[in-house]
Amino acid sequence: MSIASQTERVIIFDTTLRDGEQSPGATLNVEEKLAIAHQLALLGVDVIEAGFAVASPGDFQAVKSIAEQVGISGGPIICSLARAIRQDIQAAAEALKPAAHSRIHTMISTSDIHLKYQLKKSRSEVLAIAEEMIAYAKSFVDDVEFSPMDASRTEREFLYQVLKVAIAAGATTINIPDTVGYCTPKEMGNLIQGIRENVPNIEQVILSVHTQNDLGLATANALAAIEYGVRQVECTINGIGERAGNAALEEIVMALQVRKPFFNPYFGRSVDSETPLTNIKTQEIYKTSSLVSQLTGMLIQPNKAIVGANAFAHESGIHQDGIIKHRETYEIMEAAAIGLPENRIVLGKHSGRNAFRTRLKELGFDLNEADLNKAFNRFKEVADKKKEISDWDLEAIARDEMQIQ
Ligand code: KIV
User: Fold this and answer.
1) Nearest in space to 303 (alpha carbons), one of 384, 216, 224
2) H/E run at residue 104
3) Is residue 2 over pLDDT 50?
4) Regarding beta strands 232-235 and 206-211, do their DSSP bridges make them parallel or antiparallel, or are they unpaired?
5) Which residue among 13, 22, 106, 212 is best mutated to probe the pocket of ligand 1, counting the most ligand atoms within 8 A of its Cβ?
6) Residue 241 in contact with residue 221, Cβ under 8 Å?
7) 242 CA distance to ligand 1 centroid (A)?
8) DSSP-derived secondary structure letter, 299
9) Residue 5 alpha carbon to ligand 1 centre in Å
10) Which residues contact 368 (CB under 8 A, 6 or more apart)?
11) Of 115-129, 244-258, 278-292, 380-394, where does mean pLDDT reach its minimum?
12) Residue 256 pLDDT > 80, yes or no?
């Protein structure tokens, strides 16, 4: 695939099986990783970061099995993370051998705080290591991604220098990590713009971002980066990952779909172009989200955008009334778009008469006006005592009013 054709859309780099698995308690075994990888391929992600091959024998085996079984011709690129260390790169290259398309993702920290306290190396040492290890990774695979870790807190001139050297050494994707989720969307935009203006060879490669969610800005930062020319985003299913997690794949993809007219011009397209901005089959989102939640044991908060249990649920009477009259009054996307059969009208104390009557009709109760009024009053009394009213509660109320035994 040429770089030019890749830049016509956003490349979805899924790191659920690497950064996502770094969520405390989310450890997956080889079979579980394989099951998720198969589902990610069905979802249509472009790159699967399958793990960190050197991290453990289990992770090596997981990368290898995914490379064998999911990394088939025409399938996604299979990637392994590797520090800019020979042993890591060798392990990644070995595990990735069976894949039809493989990528080594190598990284080294570049911010002064990481250099001083963690790496205990000078800037010139880091520059030399990055250059040497990218060339070394390139001796195994054509597709090499480089990440200057903590890029958003790296002094800009040094960052530009590292990136220039990395591209000259053979990196084909340059990924900009906001490792500690420190950026605001505007700063992210400026960071990407600065790189594009000051790294002359940057247009030869795919520019990518990896946004962490420490301030709850991961998705906003990824979208801002796209506006400034980034064409790969690193993300995870349900936004899982180290600390507060990563940008959520489903949020980025659905934002690009629902707001396509807003994003289209950034891709040189007319506002109303219908061509999708990613390769993701959005109808597979809900299934993938559930599988990841089930296998990692990471529960999804009910109000989580796109995949939370309440994302397509309506409780307030005003909203329910609107939805019954026309779905788009209170919904910007259809539940079916992510693979859910339908939205959900939740009956509770905020619900109105229209939603109540509609649900009773669906349950087979066609009450006359007087009975309906009495039933509705009774329903409100019950709703004050319970968080959610079940169909059984409704049936009991309707039967009472209709005096059916
Ligand atoms: O958060 C981070 O900086 C990373 C890099 C390896 C991309 O996970």
Assistant:
1) 216
2) strand 102-109
3) no
4) parallel
5) 212
6) no
7) 9
8) P
9) 26
10) none
11) 380-394
12) yes
